[in-house]
């Protein structure tokens, strides 16, 4: 009965979401459109606001979007983006959640997208978590539900561990940080090495990598927007600042997993993972014999959920690393079910 009611409620919202998320096919671009260092020129689905603060002696700005529900249910959801994505990636999901009664806040992490990219910044998962908490405090958010994708899932887990009074529930979508790569013999990657890999990226290599790692070999016209967004940042006037932030956060992700701390996560948590997730963090610089042994997220997610106090693993059959883009309707139904406690 509960699922039927959810389906009736969500049907018109999901139809609207699908219409927005699936533009008509268009020819592949022959030239890379460039964007500014703060992603100037790339349109976001909702107005962008700035949280201004100081970090490591520098003035920084954290960009965020905020949606107020027409009929509030009293809950606030924070959508945390992945490393090669931005808050804008959550646009369709945010719209559905707001229509369902949730207040929705969608930040861009410092170092990413429309937020500041301070040069020489010492990135840490705890530091990004703390900046996110400060932004939420400035908005009077109170207790929140975190929905974190990829790197955003790693940040969400750190927030749940370090500030349990803030987090009432989590949904982790194909999160990073579920394994200790160094313990699995993945070589340490220095910031310099990571930067060298970043400098090799082009629009063509970004598409090829996303096709293989995110969409398990497939590609649709609506994926172009997110590949073009990233390629435009790398090709734009902020290229060196983007490379610096990407390299430093690559080193951060490898050296700061939460694999040994799952038992410290007390908030009810759903790990939602595409069974075709091919994004193996560390594969790009690991020897072939090590890369072939890196476990996939579906395996890691099941093990991680079992170690959490209130963890639940929910596989998404046939989907890859970015289910909210690959199949928005199916993902949004699963997300609403997780938020309503249907998977408990």
List the helices and strands and how they pair.
Elements: H1 2-21, E1 49-55, E2 58-67, E3 76-80, H2 91-99, E4 103-107, H3 125-138, E5 144-149, H4 151-162, E6 167-173, H5 191-199, H6 203-213, H7 224-235, H8 239-255, E7 269-274, H9 288-291, H10 297-307, E8 311-316, H11 323-326, H12 328-339
Parallel strand pairs: 3-4, 3-5, 5-6, 6-7, 7-8
Antiparallel strand pairs: 1-2, 2-4
Helix pairs in contact: 1-2, 1-12, 3-4, 5-8, 6-7
Q: Could you state the CATH homologous superfamily?
A: Alpha/Beta hydrolase fold, catalytic domain
CATH topology: Rossmann fold
Query: What integer is the average pLDDT?
Result: 92
Task: Please give the CATH class.
Answer: Alpha Beta
Total strand segments? 8
For the sheet with most strands, the description reads:
8 strands, mixed
**Total separate domains:** 1
Describe the global form.
globular
Taken as a percent bin, the fraction of beta residues is 15-25%
Class by helix and strand content? alpha/beta
What is the distance, rounded to the nearest whole angstrom, between the alpha carbons of the first and last residues? 16 Å
Helical segment count? 12
Query: Which spans of ≥5 residues are poorly predicted at pLDDT below 50?
Result: 1-5, 15-29
As a whole number of angstroms, the C-alpha radius of gyration is 19 Å
Architecture per CATH nomenclature, i.e. the level-2 architecture: 3-Layer(aba) Sandwich
H/E series: HEEEHEHEHEHHHHEHHEHH
